[in-house]
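Continuing the batch. This is chain 6 of the set; chains 1 through 5 are on the previous pages. Same settings as before, nothing changed between runs. Recording input and output for traceability.
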Amino acid sequence: MEHSGSKPDSNVMLRLLRCLPKCSNKFSTENCIFNSQLRRFPGEIRRINLHPYKSSVTLAKFGGLLARIIAVANQKGGVGKTTTAVNLAACLAAAEQSTLLVDCDSQGNATSAIGFPKDPSRRTVYHTLILNEPFEKIVQKSQVEGLDVLPADKNLAGAAVELVVAENREYKLQSFLQPLREKYRFIVLDCPPALDLLTLNALVAADSVLVPIQCEYLALEGVSELLDTLMRIRRTLNPKLEIEGILLTMYDERTSLSKQVATDLRSFFGNQVFQSMIPRNVRLAEAPSFGKPIIFYDIHSKGAEGYTQLAQEVINNAEKRAGAGARSAHSGA
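Output for chain 6:
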């Protein structure tokens, strides 16, 4: 039987975002069962962004903030990248933060999860990267007020091949998104589950990377490769790339394994791990099949609570960066 999910009142969303409880910041550093995995990360990688609010803030020509571009990336599949990209973007827009969601995955899951059925005639990110189509011909208005979408489809798989011989191939997406930074407050990029040219384009275009990690033992297997890639990109293509945060997904509070993974990751990565955790939640898994973000499908679910908390953290972090950047600019004047 089809779920009738209804659109929540925007004032309800704002009150929910403002009233969410703060999580404790006290975690045990003992009995780390993942030391053998965690110690593989070079110290340089672990220090990518230990002081997130002391980072540079991009200011517009006339003093306004430019959009913060966040790539949701992890080459390991099934960790919640698309779910996170779609629901974070929807919650940011619901909190009156103009947001653009860019689907960089040829599977087009973010496109369908936000409510767009497959349509071979629709222009997509492929037309941007390869055919240089303008933004106005590609952007789609979503069901969430304040959230625009750049869709993807299977043709995007061809872009990864065609980009190989393209000039400045790593900067294609960056060049396209740069003029849009004054139009939005946040731009969220849903990356494919691979470290290919599409993911590389997203990481070069991004200000920061949000890394979803499943609360299981094998979750760290691909993280070392991803963080190593981030360090290489920082050294060569995008020196300002930061870690937006590490997000714990599919958290099951009933199991000691999930609790231990969360504790160990926090003890190792410290304040780079978001306080918000995304629980295992049936409603969250159901929502994409109805083409709705979780706040439209079931705003009272634990999944909706988790992503509204995450959106609030991202907004708060951005405001702290903006305050630090403004003080820095003032002192340098």
